[in-house]
Amino acid sequence: MGKGKVMENVYDYDAYCFDLDGTIYVSQMILPGVNSFISSLRSQGKRLLFLTNTPVHTREECYKRLLSLGVPCELDEILTAGYVSGMYFAEYAPDARVLVVGEEALRSELRAIGITMTEDPTHSTHVLVGMDRQFHYDKLHLAAKAVRHGAVLMATNPDSCCPVQGDIIPDTGSILSSIEAASQQKASVVIGKPSRYYAEKALQLLNVNKSSCLMIGDRLETDILFGQQNGMKTALVLTGISSREDIQETGILPDYIWSSFNECIMEQDNQYEHSTELKVKRT
Asked: How many CB atoms within 10 Å of residue 282?
């Protein structure tokens, strides 16, 4: 289903990129069919990456959560928006003095890469905005003041909301909008999906042709757009933010749409049974 030529069998791709929140898990709950699907990919020697836009968990924390949920992975198979933001500074602005609106996980990722942070809005060269569950008026004021003093406004990710168990909560994009309004400046760089920079880092790690990579996620405007804009095939799972109705509204059409990974597995089993029946009839 979808546009463009896709593999007859979803297991025919060389590499698979997975979003985390709403795709692999919601809070501490593993989503249906995830373990079976990933185990099948592992048994076939496929290359995997887990690409999350979260700035409130470090790579190490995502790694530990995946293992606790029975998902086999390695630390170097995980990219977070916070970690990739640190990579961006190291590559393009290594001498930056960054005023961070965000939580300790984001600061930890920047600190690990050696990025200098400051609380002084008149001393900062950049303002990096991430999801912050303790965001308040003073933080808004300091960030806007820094931007008015010439700091470059950036964000870890564009997501306006995030799925949690039984709820949907505000994410980075909502906080960024308030800072843009207060400073009267738009963010010049947004690091997370669907950015080309994030895709470049992911494809470098995978070391495969982008057309042989399948991006799987729950959000049309980030995960699916990320895949489409960067030459990958895409699969939407309806276990998180986006719905079938959203496809009609946005015009963003994935190559595959599954209610869950169980539906994907069932489709592949049915294809296998059908092809086996045809072989038997021919013989």
From this structure: 6
In angstroms, the first-to-last Cα distance of the chain is 31
Structure tokens at 232: 């990958």
19 is annotated as an active-site residue: yes
- In tens, the pLDDT along 118-175 reads 999 999 999 999 999 999 999 999 999 999 999 999 999 999 998 888 898 999 999 9
- Average pLDDT of the chain is 92
- Is the Cβ–Cβ distance between 182 and 141 less than 8 Å? yes
Instruction: Give 155's Cβ-side CA count (13 Å radius).
Output: 27
Residue 114, phi then psi, degrees to nearest 5: 90, 25
pLDDT per position as a tens digit, 74-116: 999 999 999 999 999 999 999 999 999 999 999 999 999 999 9
Q: Is 118 exposed, middle or buried (0-12, 13-18, 19+ CB in 10 A)?
A: middle
User: Rounded mean pLDDT of 227-243?
Assistant: 96
DSSP 221: I
Catalytic site includes residue 167: no
Q: Residues 12, 14, 21, 269: which is the catalytic one? A: 21
The residue from 19, 132, 159, 218 that is catalytic is 19
Separation between Cα atoms, residue 94 and residue 69, nearest integer Å:
36
Given its phi and psi angles, is residue 28 left (phi above 0), alpha (psi -120 to 50 degrees) or beta?
alpha
The number of angstroms, rounded, from the C-alpha of 89 to the middle of its chain's C-alpha atoms is: 19
pTM: 0.90
Number of Cα atoms under 13 Å in the Cβ half of residue 160: 7
